[in-house]
Amino acid sequence: PRPPQSIPTIKVPRPAKPTFTTLKLSKESDLRGAIKEWICEFRDEGPYGEDVDALIKYLRKVVLEERDLGKAVGVVSWIEYVSSEKDERGIWTTPIKRVRDGVRGAARERGLGDVVFD
Length: 118
Description:
Layout: H1 28-41, H2 49-64, H3 69-86, H4 93-109
Helix pairs in contact: 1-3, 2-3, 2-4, 3-4
């Protein structure tokens, strides 16, 4: 009798985690620091629309590809917390709503229920 042949296996690498900014941030602690700096830097004039779009795109990938809704919600909650301390005129209110809506849309696309941020 012939010995059983081993079946070749293929190792597929895990997809890279989505990253945010040119610094390639992906850990929540790093994101918190970058977001705080961002809000402080733009507290008087508010964020650029394309920066908000980039954050929405990143968080969408976190929900859909990284499959970490908790991380996305945590980032949004952090933005709300920091802006509540730094944004006295409410300039960040509309951008934050857009980010929330983006995370909710990604969660719906993934088949999850409504997202609560509080």
